[in-house]
Write a structure and sequence with these properties.
Elements: H1 6-27, H2 31-58, H3 70-73, H4 75-90, H5 93-103, H6 105-113, H7 116-135, H8 139-155, H9 160-168, H10 171-189, H11 191-209, H12 213-224, H13 230-249, H14 254-272, H15 275-288, H16 290-307, H17 316-338, H18 340-374, H19 378-418
């Protein structure tokens, strides 16, 4: 059911006044009744004309087909005009560039990323990605290529004698050797097993070294009268040896220094011997064997891959990578903050991405607008457009009646003056 608006009511009032003014003019002829009728006629004609014009935009008023229902007939042109309006006015290149510049997007992006939670998440993601990639590496192919490369570029050109001598003479290696020796000794002599081993050594010494004579007699008498007890001797020796091994762990102790001096002397004597060069040549020859080198590399890669397993969350490799990536991320943010050139490059990159994305949205928005308008029926399109400008259309129609009435008065006065 049609709802009368102010324009309809104005036109209805003008029609009613015309119906009243016409018989009054006929019954009471005169200048005032004639002027009133002339004014009402002009207002009625103006209102009807504007009603027809406004209605012709959306439909065919009174069924007249000529130059009516403009919007449905020019629908395609209206759609293209709407698309051009959106693209050129809202997504114009100049407007987009000015808007992107005013956003200060680079600072916002850096501030958003410079967050402990996000940096930790990024570190975890990058670490997992690297470990996954490492786990997917074909170890056989890598080992083959790496062994060939090392043979050709490292092993053959390496002065093994000099390198081995320099490495063996380093204090770090000697300290590690002494500590490993202490660990080995402590492992062998600790506990009841250690006591038994020491006791067996004493018994062996007794049976091998003291076979006859007075020494043998004294040892036999000592054992008989329980003066010499091998088990007690073993416990005493174990106690003393454990004290010595504890001192071996302390790099400042005299025992450690003495052992290090012994190791140093042994190394120097070994290097000075003639068969040292033969040993080095044999070592280099073994290393040049690609099969041997390949096995070593494969074993190393297999060890790395085990640490790349997602279930090994506490693996040493994962922790090293996480720490390394976390430090690098902090360094990156520090550089972005403090280095003006880097900051400018980042700002240019982010702004360029935003500009390109916004400009790319021109065609995307155009497609969206075209699809939306094409999916609408003529009635839906008319309703949408009419709802946006309904108030203005009502005033246009009202103005038609008002202006028509005003012009009618002016024309009547002008005609009376001419007469």
């Amino acid at each position: 059911m049609h709802k009368f608006n102010r324009a309809d009511k104005t036109l209805l009032v003008a029609a009613c006044l015309f119906l009243v003014a016409l018989p009054i003019r006929i019954k009471y002829p005169g200048i005032f009744t004639e002027a009133f009728l002339f004014c009402i006629e002009a207002a009625l004609v103006g209102g009807i004309a504007d009603w027809f014009a406004v209605s012709a935009l959306f439909r065919k008023p009174l069924g007249i087909p000529w130059h009516t229902a403009i919007l449905p007939k020019r629908r395609q042109a209206f759609t293209e005009a709407t698309i051009r309006l959106v693209q050129r006015q809202f997504f114009a290149k100049k407007i987009v560039f000015q808007r992107v510049k005013s956003l200060n997007a680079s600072e916002k992006v850096i501030c958003w990323l410079d967050n402990d939670t996000r940096k930790q998440l990024f570190t975890e993601k990058v670490t997992s990605m690297l470990l996954t990639k490492i786990a997917q590496i074909d170890s056989t192919v890598i080992a083959e290529k790496l062994s060939v490369y090392l043979n050709e570029n490292v092993i053959k050109t390496l002065d093994m004698k000099k390198w081995c001598a320099e490495y063996l003479e380093t204090d770090k290696w000697k300290t590690a050797l002494v500590k490993n020796l202490a660990i080995f000794i402590k492992g062998r002599i600790s506990g009841e097993t250690g006591v038994e081993d020491i006791k067996k050594l004493l018994e062996h010494f007794e049976s091998e070294k003291i076979k006859q004579g007075a020494s043998s007699l004294l040892m036999s008498l000592g054992g008989f009268f329980d003066v010499i007890n091998n088990e007690e001797c073993a416990l005493l020796i174990q106690k003393k040896l454990l004290i010595l091994t504890d001192q071996l762990f302390d790099s400042q102790s005299q025992v450690h220094k003495d052992m290090a001096a012994i190791v140093d002397k042994a190394i120097k004597e070994t290097i000075a011997e003639n068969n040292w060069q033969e040993l080095i040549n044999l070592l280099q020859k073994k290393l040049l064997d690609s099969g041997m080198l390949k096995k070593i590399i494969l074993g190393y890669l297999s060890s790395i891959k085990k640490q790349c397993d997602n279930s090994a969350q506490d693996s040493e490799l994962r922790q090293v990578l996480k720490n390394f990536i976390a430090v690098e991320i902090e360094d990156c943010f520090s550089i972005m903050r403090n280095n003006k050139e880097i900051y400018k490059l980042i700002e240019t990159l982010i702004n360029d991405i935003l500009r390109r994305s916004a400009l790319q949205a021109q065609s995307m928005v155009g497609d969206i607008v075209r699809r939306a308008l094409n999916n609408m029926s003529d009635e839906q399109l008319n309703t949408i457009v009419h709802s946006k400008i309904n108030t203005d259309l009502i005033w246009i129609r009202m103005n038609g009646s008002i202006v028509g009435g005003g012009i009618g008065i002016l024309l009547f006065i002008f005609m009376r003056v001419i007469r």
